[in-house]
Give the backbone structure.
Amino acid sequence: MRVLVVLWLFLSGCSFSEDPPLPAEAAVTLVVFTGLGGDAVAVNPMAIVFIREPRQYGRLVSPDANCVIGVGGGNFIAVLETCTQVERRLEGK
């Protein structure tokens, strides 16, 4: 939730003052997953290119990863959630 508030503050041009301006006309939906270090990782669902099992990557991905999310540009995010959990969360279930 903290990521979404900071994003709103950034998009609206708000500094941390008492009277924040009205939110910008743009809205970004982020889905939060658990990174390998236990930190929250916010992902824009519109940026996801693929969702795959980590076994396809061999030693390139930590053995702790349960799913790999490709976000374009050759970048990927390894998460603790299973690919089934990732898909369900992206569907809003």
About this structure: The longest strand covers residues 31-34. The helical segments are 2-11, 83-91. The chain is about 20% helix and 20% strand.
